[in-house]
Design goal:
Elements lengths: L2 H14 L6 H8 L3 H14 L4 E4 L4 E4 L16 H17 L5 H17 L7 H4 L12 H13 L1 E9 L4 E15 L2 E8 L4 E6 L3 E10 L5 H8 L12 E7 L1 H7 L9 E4 L5 E7 L3 H8 L5 E5 L1 H39 L1
Antiparallel strand pairs: 1-2, 3-4, 3-7, 4-5, 5-6, 8-10, 8-11, 9-10
Helix pairs in contact: 1-3, 2-3, 4-5
Length: 343
């Protein structure tokens, strides 16, 4: 155990005890010799001004609560593991949304790194050792993100131009932000739309511009938000109207049985090693995408409407490959004929 670790552990032991601790007990907890434990005690008392006292009658060390009932280690309040965890959290945040809080949290990161240096602890190359992969991420404008986050936290309305992909149409909306959602490598905003007079989910990358209005927003409770936006499968939420029953092959079951597709899902491993998963949903679009990626390793047992929709998509895909295969064969035959003619 390093010196700084011993100091931190010793402080925690003494802070959590109301009775004196023997030197033998401290040696055991600090994983060190008697002389090292005593040097650590002296350092804590003399260099860090800890209210450390020795009880001769009980033959143990303790913190004098009458001197200072809230003593903290000066200059650092975190163990090395906690400092590393903070750096990892900083790396995660800056990777998920580059530039979001850079100017605010950069000084904190610098301070953590200085603390590590002061404690003679190696500063880790977080960006080299931790890799964060975002699949199909769509960058959001940092200024728009800040405006939306600020209005959300202040409880104020914003006006946006929103371009919906599905209808390929741009509309002006006045919305009351309710919460930001990071989902499948992209940011979304759950908001009350005053034009539609209802809750909607907006993709942040489709909002431009964002105008802060300074007008009090309509606020909904977390219970209302969860009932309308988190009770069904995926980002296309709403009150669930159906329950999908999916049957996965034994090979796929080894993966799916450990996955959470939805907080209200239920699943059962069957006698042959296959897995049956039940998921509440409203809009089938996103659920279908996740079903299709398992190909022949999943069968939709019910409802019939979802089964038919998946079947249709699979048939269309197979037809695309069939037609593509014919075109490829014709191209190959054409090239072979041209080669023979050239000879």
């Amino acid at each position: 155990m390093e010196k700084i670790d011993r100091i931190f552990v010793l402080h925690k032991i003494l802070s959590n005890r109301r009775t004196p601790v023997s030197i033998e007990r401290l040696c055991d907890r600090l994983e060190c010799s008697d002389s090292t434990a005593r040097r650590t005690l002296r350092f804590l008392r003399d260099r860090l001004s800890a209210p450390l006292e020795y009880d001769q009658a009980l033959n143990g060390w303790y913190y004098d609560r009458h001197q200072n009932d809230s003593f903290e280690l000066p200059g650092f309040w975190f163990s090395p593991e906690e400092l590393y965890a903070l750096l990892v959290s900083h790396h995660l945040l800056t990777t998920l949304q580059p530039g979001l809080l850079a100017e605010h949290i950069a000084p904190i990161k610098a301070r953590i790194e200085r603390l590590l240096e002061q404690q003679n602890i190696q500063r880790p190359a977080i960006h080299e050792r931790i890799r964060i992969l975002q699949m199909a991420a769509r960058p959001s404008d940092i200024q728009n993100f800040r405006k939306l986050a600020s209005s959300l936290l202040r409880g104020e309305q914003v006006k946006v131009l929103y371009h919906g992909r599905e209808r390929d149409k741009t509309t002006e909306r006045i919305i009351s932000p309710q919460r930001l959602v990071y989902y499948r490598s992209n940011w979304y905003l759950d908001a009350w739309c005053h034009m539609k007079n209802g809750l909607r989910t907006f993709a942040l990358d489709r909002m431009h511009p964002v105008i802060e209005m300074g007008k009090k927003a309509k606020r909904l409770s977390q219970k209302e938000l969860d009932q309308q936006l988190a009770s069904s499968y995926g980002i296309f939420s709403g009150q669930p109207k159906h329950t999908a029953v999916l049957h996965f092959s034994p090979s796929a079951a080894r993966w799916v049985a450990d996955e959470q597709w939805h907080p209200q899902q239920s699943g059962e491993v069957l006698s042959d090693g296959s897995y049956e998963l039940r998921i509440p949903y409203n809009d089938p679009r996103e659920l279908m995408m996740d079903i299709l990626k398992y190909g022949p390793d999943v069968v939709v047992k019910s409802p019939k409407s979802l089964q038919n929709a998946v079947t249709k998509r699979l048939k269309n895909a197979a037809e695309q490959y069939r037609q593509g295969g014919q075109v490829l064969n014709w191209a190959i035959m054409g090239n072979e004929a041209a080669g023979k003619t050239g000879k």
